[in-house]
Amino acid sequence: MAPVILAKLGGSVITDKAKPFSFREEVVSALGKEIAASHQPVVLVHGGGSFGHPVAKEYGLTSGAYSRGGEGVSKTRDAMYALNQLVCRTLMGAGVETYPFAPFDLLVSSNEKHTRSWLGRLLSSGLCPVTFGDVSSYPRGFRILSGDTIMHELAKVLKPVRCVFALDVDGVYRGGAEKKWERGNLLRTISVSQMSKLKVGLGDDATGGIKLKLEVAAKIASLGTRVSFVSGFRRAEFAKALKGLDFYGTVVV
Ligand SMILES: Nc1ncnc2c1ncn2[C@@H]1O[C@H](COP(=O)(O)OP(=O)(O)OP(=O)(O)O)[C@@H](O)[C@H]1O
Ligand SMILES: [Mg+2]
Protein backbone atom coordinates (compact mmCIF):
# COMPACT_ATOMS: atom_id res chain seq x y z
CA MET A 1 0.00 0.00 0.00
CA ALA A 2 1.14 3.54 -0.75
CA PRO A 3 2.21 5.67 2.24
CA VAL A 4 -0.71 6.81 4.38
CA ILE A 5 -1.72 10.44 4.80
CA LEU A 6 -3.52 11.69 7.88
CA ALA A 7 -5.57 14.86 7.52
CA LYS A 8 -7.80 16.89 9.80
CA LEU A 9 -10.63 18.92 8.35
CA GLY A 10 -10.86 21.58 11.05
CA GLY A 11 -14.23 22.49 12.45
CA SER A 12 -13.33 26.06 11.51
CA VAL A 13 -13.33 25.03 7.83
CA ILE A 14 -16.22 22.62 7.56
CA THR A 15 -18.54 24.89 9.57
CA ASP A 16 -18.82 28.58 10.35
CA LYS A 17 -17.86 28.67 14.02
CA ALA A 18 -19.69 31.99 14.43
CA LYS A 19 -23.04 30.42 13.47
CA PRO A 20 -24.36 27.40 15.37
CA PHE A 21 -25.02 24.34 13.19
CA SER A 22 -23.76 25.91 9.97
CA PHE A 23 -22.24 23.30 7.66
CA ARG A 24 -20.08 24.41 4.71
CA GLU A 25 -21.13 21.88 2.12
CA GLU A 26 -19.35 23.47 -0.83
CA VAL A 27 -16.06 23.67 1.04
CA VAL A 28 -16.24 20.03 2.13
CA SER A 29 -17.20 18.98 -1.38
CA ALA A 30 -14.22 20.81 -2.89
CA LEU A 31 -11.83 19.23 -0.37
CA GLY A 32 -13.42 15.85 -1.04
CA LYS A 33 -12.75 16.17 -4.77
CA GLU A 34 -9.08 16.85 -4.04
CA ILE A 35 -8.89 13.88 -1.66
CA ALA A 36 -10.46 11.62 -4.29
CA ALA A 37 -8.15 12.97 -7.01
CA SER A 38 -5.03 12.41 -4.90
CA HIS A 39 -5.41 8.61 -5.27
CA GLN A 40 -3.59 8.10 -2.00
CA PRO A 41 -4.70 6.29 1.15
CA VAL A 42 -6.08 9.04 3.40
CA VAL A 43 -7.41 8.82 6.95
CA LEU A 44 -9.58 11.77 7.94
CA VAL A 45 -10.46 13.37 11.25
CA HIS A 46 -12.87 16.26 11.54
CA GLY A 47 -13.45 18.74 14.31
CA GLY A 48 -16.57 19.92 16.08
CA GLY A 49 -16.86 23.42 14.67
CA SER A 50 -20.22 25.05 15.27
CA PHE A 51 -21.84 21.66 15.96
CA GLY A 52 -19.84 20.13 18.81
CA HIS A 53 -18.27 23.16 20.48
CA PRO A 54 -21.31 25.32 21.32
CA VAL A 55 -23.24 22.38 22.76
CA ALA A 56 -20.24 21.17 24.76
CA LYS A 57 -19.67 24.68 26.09
CA GLU A 58 -23.31 25.11 27.04
CA TYR A 59 -23.04 22.04 29.25
CA GLY A 60 -19.54 22.75 30.53
CA LEU A 61 -17.92 19.79 28.78
CA THR A 62 -14.23 20.18 27.97
CA SER A 63 -11.21 18.06 27.17
CA GLY A 64 -9.61 19.09 30.47
CA ALA A 65 -12.00 18.12 33.26
CA TYR A 66 -14.30 15.16 33.73
CA SER A 67 -18.06 15.70 33.90
CA ARG A 68 -20.85 13.59 35.33
CA GLY A 69 -22.64 13.04 32.06
CA GLY A 70 -26.33 13.55 31.45
CA GLU A 71 -28.02 15.64 28.80
CA GLY A 72 -24.88 17.51 27.72
CA VAL A 73 -23.14 14.27 26.79
CA SER A 74 -26.10 13.06 24.73
CA LYS A 75 -26.57 16.38 22.99
CA THR A 76 -22.89 16.92 22.19
CA ARG A 77 -22.60 13.42 20.76
CA ASP A 78 -25.79 13.95 18.80
CA ALA A 79 -24.36 17.15 17.29
CA MET A 80 -21.10 15.40 16.36
CA TYR A 81 -22.84 12.43 14.77
CA ALA A 82 -25.05 14.80 12.78
CA LEU A 83 -21.98 16.69 11.57
CA ASN A 84 -20.17 13.44 10.76
CA GLN A 85 -23.08 12.33 8.63
CA LEU A 86 -23.10 15.63 6.74
CA VAL A 87 -19.34 15.43 6.21
CA CYS A 88 -19.42 11.83 5.00
CA ARG A 89 -22.40 12.29 2.69
CA THR A 90 -20.78 15.34 1.14
CA LEU A 91 -17.45 13.54 0.73
CA MET A 92 -19.23 10.57 -0.86
CA GLY A 93 -20.86 12.95 -3.31
CA ALA A 94 -17.36 14.18 -4.16
CA GLY A 95 -16.08 10.67 -4.91
CA VAL A 96 -14.58 9.67 -1.55
CA GLU A 97 -15.64 6.24 -0.30
CA THR A 98 -15.96 7.07 3.36
CA TYR A 99 -15.98 4.70 6.32
CA PRO A 100 -17.07 6.66 9.40
CA PHE A 101 -16.08 5.37 12.82
CA ALA A 102 -16.30 6.70 16.38
CA PRO A 103 -12.78 7.14 17.75
CA PHE A 104 -13.12 6.01 21.33
CA ASP A 105 -13.44 2.24 21.18
CA LEU A 106 -10.69 1.92 18.65
CA LEU A 107 -8.17 4.33 20.11
CA VAL A 108 -8.68 3.94 23.82
CA SER A 109 -9.83 0.42 24.39
CA SER A 110 -7.94 -1.55 21.78
CA ASN A 111 -4.25 -2.09 21.14
CA GLU A 112 -2.15 -0.42 18.48
CA LYS A 113 -1.60 -3.58 16.48
CA HIS A 114 -5.32 -4.18 16.16
CA THR A 115 -5.98 -0.53 15.24
CA ARG A 116 -3.25 -0.59 12.61
CA SER A 117 -4.49 -3.73 10.90
CA TRP A 118 -8.13 -2.63 11.12
CA LEU A 119 -7.40 0.71 9.46
CA GLY A 120 -5.00 -0.95 7.03
CA ARG A 121 -7.74 -3.26 5.77
CA LEU A 122 -10.08 -0.33 5.18
CA LEU A 123 -7.41 1.61 3.30
CA SER A 124 -6.44 -1.41 1.17
CA SER A 125 -10.08 -1.73 0.20
CA GLY A 126 -9.96 1.82 -1.12
CA LEU A 127 -12.04 3.21 1.74
CA CYS A 128 -11.34 6.47 3.54
CA PRO A 129 -11.77 6.04 7.31
CA VAL A 130 -13.35 9.17 8.82
CA THR A 131 -13.47 9.88 12.52
CA PHE A 132 -14.18 12.94 14.66
CA GLY A 133 -13.89 14.63 18.03
CA ASP A 134 -16.20 12.83 20.43
CA VAL A 135 -17.39 12.69 24.03
CA SER A 136 -15.81 9.72 25.72
CA SER A 137 -16.51 7.83 28.91
CA TYR A 138 -13.61 7.21 31.27
CA PRO A 139 -13.57 5.69 34.76
CA ARG A 140 -13.61 9.22 36.24
CA GLY A 141 -16.38 10.60 34.03
CA PHE A 142 -16.94 12.08 30.58
CA ARG A 143 -14.48 14.15 28.67
CA ILE A 144 -14.13 15.47 25.15
CA LEU A 145 -11.65 13.62 23.02
CA SER A 146 -10.58 16.43 20.71
CA GLY A 147 -10.03 15.88 16.99
CA ASP A 148 -6.51 17.23 17.41
CA THR A 149 -5.71 14.67 20.12
CA ILE A 150 -7.11 11.94 17.88
CA MET A 151 -4.67 13.09 15.17
CA HIS A 152 -1.82 12.37 17.56
CA GLU A 153 -3.23 8.97 18.58
CA LEU A 154 -3.66 8.00 14.92
CA ALA A 155 -0.22 9.31 13.98
CA LYS A 156 1.39 7.10 16.62
CA VAL A 157 -0.41 4.06 15.28
CA LEU A 158 -0.37 4.71 11.53
CA LYS A 159 3.03 6.40 11.18
CA PRO A 160 1.75 8.43 8.21
CA VAL A 161 4.17 10.16 5.84
CA ARG A 162 2.30 13.43 6.25
CA CYS A 163 -0.17 15.05 8.56
CA VAL A 164 -2.22 17.92 7.15
CA PHE A 165 -4.31 20.26 9.28
CA ALA A 166 -6.85 22.22 7.21
CA LEU A 167 -7.92 25.45 8.92
CA ASP A 168 -9.94 28.59 8.19
CA VAL A 169 -6.68 30.58 8.09
CA ASP A 170 -3.62 30.09 5.87
CA GLY A 171 -1.48 28.56 8.59
CA VAL A 172 0.18 29.57 11.83
CA TYR A 173 0.73 33.29 12.41
CA ARG A 174 3.16 35.05 14.64
CA GLY A 175 1.46 37.40 17.07
CA GLY A 176 -0.96 37.39 19.95
CA ALA A 177 -4.63 36.81 20.43
CA GLU A 178 -6.04 40.00 18.92
CA LYS A 179 -3.64 40.13 16.00
CA LYS A 180 -5.23 40.32 12.56
CA TRP A 181 -4.19 37.37 10.43
CA GLU A 182 -2.14 39.23 7.89
CA ARG A 183 -0.21 37.67 5.02
CA GLY A 184 3.09 39.10 6.22
CA ASN A 185 2.64 37.46 9.61
CA LEU A 186 2.20 33.96 8.26
CA LEU A 187 4.98 31.64 9.35
CA ARG A 188 5.94 29.54 6.33
CA THR A 189 7.93 27.24 8.60
CA ILE A 190 7.81 26.78 12.33
CA SER A 191 10.05 24.70 14.57
CA VAL A 192 8.87 22.60 17.47
CA SER A 193 10.57 24.92 19.95
CA GLN A 194 9.04 28.01 18.27
CA MET A 195 5.60 26.39 18.59
CA SER A 196 5.84 26.10 22.35
CA LYS A 197 6.72 29.78 22.68
CA LEU A 198 4.23 31.24 20.18
CA LYS A 199 1.63 33.67 21.46
CA VAL A 200 -1.75 32.48 20.24
CA GLY A 201 -5.35 33.57 20.42
CA LEU A 202 -7.67 31.50 22.56
CA GLY A 203 -10.60 31.34 20.15
CA ASP A 204 -14.03 29.99 20.90
CA ASP A 205 -13.29 26.33 21.33
CA ALA A 206 -14.22 23.74 23.96
CA THR A 207 -10.93 21.91 23.59
CA GLY A 208 -8.11 24.45 23.59
CA GLY A 209 -8.18 25.93 20.07
CA ILE A 210 -4.93 26.58 18.28
CA LYS A 211 -2.92 26.12 21.49
CA LEU A 212 -3.82 22.43 21.73
CA LYS A 213 -3.36 22.08 17.98
CA LEU A 214 0.22 23.34 18.19
CA GLU A 215 1.00 21.07 21.14
CA VAL A 216 -0.35 18.11 19.22
CA ALA A 217 1.46 19.11 16.03
CA ALA A 218 4.74 19.29 17.93
CA LYS A 219 4.23 15.77 19.26
CA ILE A 220 3.37 14.45 15.79
CA ALA A 221 6.40 16.16 14.26
CA SER A 222 8.57 14.58 16.96
CA LEU A 223 7.47 11.18 15.66
CA GLY A 224 9.18 12.07 12.38
CA THR A 225 5.99 12.90 10.49
CA ARG A 226 5.85 15.98 8.28
CA VAL A 227 3.13 18.27 9.66
CA SER A 228 1.50 21.04 7.64
CA PHE A 229 -1.14 23.68 8.20
CA VAL A 230 -3.07 24.90 5.19
CA SER A 231 -6.24 26.80 4.46
CA GLY A 232 -9.20 24.55 3.74
CA PHE A 233 -10.62 27.40 1.66
CA ARG A 234 -7.79 27.12 -0.87
CA ARG A 235 -8.42 23.78 -2.46
CA ALA A 236 -5.39 23.87 -4.74
CA GLU A 237 -3.08 24.52 -1.79
CA PHE A 238 -4.81 21.79 0.21
CA ALA A 239 -4.25 19.39 -2.71
CA LYS A 240 -0.56 20.26 -2.84
CA ALA A 241 -0.18 19.81 0.92
CA LEU A 242 -1.89 16.43 0.64
CA LYS A 243 0.52 15.34 -2.08
CA GLY A 244 3.58 16.62 -0.21
CA LEU A 245 4.28 19.38 -2.75
CA ASP A 246 5.20 22.98 -1.91
CA PHE A 247 2.10 24.91 -0.87
CA TYR A 248 1.12 28.25 0.64
CA GLY A 249 0.85 27.65 4.37
CA THR A 250 2.98 26.54 7.34
CA VAL A 251 5.23 23.50 7.57
CA VAL A 252 6.63 22.24 10.87
CA VAL A 253 10.37 21.76 10.56
N1 LIG B 1 -1.18 32.25 15.94
C1 LIG B 1 -2.24 31.76 15.32
N2 LIG B 1 -2.11 31.25 14.09
C2 LIG B 1 -3.17 30.72 13.43
N3 LIG B 1 -4.43 30.68 13.94
C3 LIG B 1 -4.62 31.18 15.17
C4 LIG B 1 -3.54 31.74 15.92
N4 LIG B 1 -4.03 32.16 17.10
C5 LIG B 1 -5.33 31.89 17.10
N5 LIG B 1 -5.71 31.30 15.95
C6 LIG B 1 -7.08 30.89 15.64
O1 LIG B 1 -7.18 29.49 15.72
C7 LIG B 1 -8.24 29.07 14.87
C8 LIG B 1 -8.10 27.63 14.52
O2 LIG B 1 -8.27 26.82 15.66
P1 LIG B 1 -9.69 26.24 16.01
O3 LIG B 1 -9.53 25.24 17.10
O4 LIG B 1 -10.69 27.34 16.20
O5 LIG B 1 -10.10 25.57 14.64
P2 LIG B 1 -10.32 24.06 14.26
O6 LIG B 1 -9.41 23.18 15.03
O7 LIG B 1 -10.30 24.05 12.79
O8 LIG B 1 -11.80 23.80 14.77
P3 LIG B 1 -12.30 22.49 15.57
O9 LIG B 1 -11.67 22.54 16.92
O10 LIG B 1 -13.76 22.66 15.60
O11 LIG B 1 -11.85 21.35 14.75
C9 LIG B 1 -8.14 29.99 13.69
O12 LIG B 1 -9.43 30.25 13.21
C10 LIG B 1 -7.51 31.28 14.23
O13 LIG B 1 -8.46 32.30 14.34
MG1 LIG C 1 -9.95 23.28 17.58
Describe the structure.
Helices cover 44% and strands 18% of the residues. With 253 residues, it is of the alpha/beta class. The strands form 2 sheets. The protein has an 8-stranded mixed sheet, with helices on both faces. A two-stranded antiparallel sheet has the order 5-6. Strand 5 (134-138) and strand 6 (141-145) form a beta hairpin. Helix 2 (25-38) crosses helix 4, helix 2 runs parallel beside helix 10 and helix 3 (49-58) runs antiparallel to helix 4 (71-93). The protein starts with a strand and ends with a strand. The mean pLDDT is 91. The structure holds adenosine-5'-triphosphate and magnesium ion. Magnesium ion is lined by residues 47, 205, 207, 209, 213.
Keywords, please?
253 residues, alpha/beta, Carbamate kinase, eight-stranded mixed beta sheet, two-stranded antiparallel sheet, 10 helices, binds adenosine-5'-triphosphate, binds magnesium ion
Q: How many distinct helices?
A: 10
CATH architecture: 3-Layer(aba) Sandwich
Strand sequence of the main sheet, in spatial order? Answer: 3-4-2-1-7-9-10-8
The small-molecule ligands in this entry are: adenosine-5'-triphosphate, magnesium ion
Radius of gyration: 17 Å
Helix content bin: 40-55%
The pLDDT mean sits at: 91
Shape: globular
How does the helix and strand content classify structurally?
alpha/beta
Looking at this structure, what is the CATH superfamily?
Answer: Acetylglutamate kinase-like
Strand portion, in percent?
15-25%
Count up the domains: 1
